[in-house]
């Protein structure tokens, strides 16, 4: 059974090595999540540990999918910081271990983020993903709306420039309050 749970900053530090291993597996399988091959395990673990302060400060959230006490996947949510954008956040770093793909873990992670964002009063989520990727198929099937593509936006893990498609998901009307 897979369990989706949010992690605190200290928990993120605890999971950093396992998340680094997940990230390396994902990048080696071709996932375009911002890193190039070869990806050093310690550099990946440092990247995760550096997110802990943002998680503690509330600017970022991270969820993990635990499958038999092993991290099988992860997803993040970065809150917008400007006053005119506090109704939205960016979904980032959705990764599932290659050996765990096809079991609905990616969709479960995405659903957990959407549900949490809606409960927190966010009304809009955005993300970007490599055009034509497996992740793009997931977002489309989960009801996300594509809103444009940018050619040669980012390099894939092998260093080849690829297009990126931008997506959004409306969650509802934002709460309004007087300034």
Automatic annotation (TrEMBL):
The keyword Nucleotidyltransferase does not apply. InterPro entries: Acyl_CoA_acyltransferase (IPR016181), Bact_Acetyltransf (IPR050832), GNAT_dom (IPR000182). Keywords: Acyltransferase, Transferase. SUPFAM superfamilies: Acyl-CoA N-acyltransferases (Nat). The keyword Acyltransferase applies. Residues 22-167 form the N-acetyltransferase domain. It comes from the Bacteria. This is GNAT family N-acetyltransferase. It comes from [Kitasatospora] papulosa. The lineage of its organism: Bacteria, Bacillati, Actinomycetota, Actinomycetes, Kitasatosporales.
């Amino acid at each position: 059974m897979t369990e989706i749970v949010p992690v605190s900053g200290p928990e993120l530090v605890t999971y950093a090595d396992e998340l680094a291993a997940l990230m390396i597996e994902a990048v080696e399988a071709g996932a375009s999540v911002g890193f190039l091959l070869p990806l050093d395990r310690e550099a990946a673990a440092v990247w995760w540990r550096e997110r802990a302060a943002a998680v503690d400060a509330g600017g970022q959230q991270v969820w993990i999918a635990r499958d038999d006490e092993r991290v099988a996947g992860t997803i993040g949510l970065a809150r917008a910081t400007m006053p005119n954008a506090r109704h939205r956040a960016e979904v980032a770093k959705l990764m599932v271990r290659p050996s765990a793909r096809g079991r609905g873990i990616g969709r479960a992670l995405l659903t957990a983020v959407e549900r949490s964002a809606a409960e927190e009063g966010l009304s809009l989520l955005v993300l970007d993903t490599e055009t034509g990727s497996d992740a793009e198929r997931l977002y489309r099937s989960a009801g996300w709306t594509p809103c444009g593509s940018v050619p040669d936006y980012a390099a894939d893990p092998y260093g080849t420039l690829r297009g990126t498609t931008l997506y959004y998901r409306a969650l509802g009307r934002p709460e309004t309050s007087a300034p």
